Amino acid sequence: IRLLQLEQDGRPIIRGSITDISERKRAQEALRHSEERLRQLVESSPFCIHEIDLDNRLKSMNDAGLNMLGLATADSILGTDYLSFVPERERPEISAKLAAARYGATVNFQLHLKSGQIFDSTTKPIRDDAGQITGLIGITQDITEREQSRQRLQLSQFMLDHITEAAFLVAEDGSLRDANPAACRMLGYSR
After folding, report:
1. Pairing outcome for strands 118-127 and 133-142
2. 191: pLDDT strictly greater than 90
3. N or C: which end of the chain has fewer CB within 10 A?
4. CA angle 84, 90, 93 (to 5 degrees)
5. Largest Cα–Cα distance of the chain, in whole Å?
6. What is the sign of the dihedral through the CA atoms of 176, 180, 185 and 186?
7. How far apart, in whole angstroms, are the C-alpha atoms of residue 21 and residue 17?
8. CA-wise closest residue to 98 among 117, 85, 114, 116
9. 3-state secondary structure 46-86
10. Over pLDDT 70: what percentage of the chain?
């Protein structure tokens, strides 16, 4: 409601108008609901979701990312150069990949920390309504256990392939699933 007090022929008059803002209120509520839902999705993600500005400074990080770094709050890392978390030997490669992301590419890289942790990260540009790149968003997951399992499996396969005795892998139903080279030679088959 808008009211305007005027004078006409020396007498005060009041003019008013009423504007229906119901649609604007519904749109504001829908936007608030959408923003809250997006915030909940980011916060409940098991992956680190972080935002990096165009100068490589961390702008935000969700709880999963803080947990990966062993931090309780983001206060100590916001504004910190992202590359300060990257091992020295990997900085040139990752710096180049972040530069490519600032020019529009989606990049993927792994971080191998001194602690033994291995992280896999995908980073891509954030664009404004005009299509200009305003920052980067990264999604990172701790792949340490998966990578260690893969390495153990490779080692086991190497050992199996290089022992001189015949070795067979038999399924529960009795079918032959695999055999090492020594077993193949013994039976006259090739692998």
Report:
1. antiparallel
2. no
3. N
4. 105
5. 118
6. negative
7. 12
8. 85
9. CCEEEEECCCCEEEEECHHHHHHCCCCCCCCCCCCEHHHHC
10. 99
| Per-residue DSSP letter, 37 | H
- Helices then strands (H, E): number in the chain? 5, 9
Q: Which H, E and C letters describe 158-184, residue by residue?
A: HHHHHCCCCCEEECCCCCEEEECHHHH
**pLDDT tens by residue, 84-140:** 989 999 999 999 999 999 999 999 999 998 888 899 999 999 999 999 999 999 999
CA distance 121 to 64: 13
Tens of pLDDT, residue by residue over 139-172, are: 999 998 888 888 888 887 887 777 788 888 788 8
Using CA atoms, how far apart are residues 161 and 62, in angstroms rounded to an integer? 44
CA 12 to the chain's CA centroid = 65
CA gap 102, 191 in Å, rounded: 48
Q: Please answer whether residues 118 and 143 qualify as being in contact, where contact means their C-beta atoms are separated by less than 8 angstroms.
A: yes
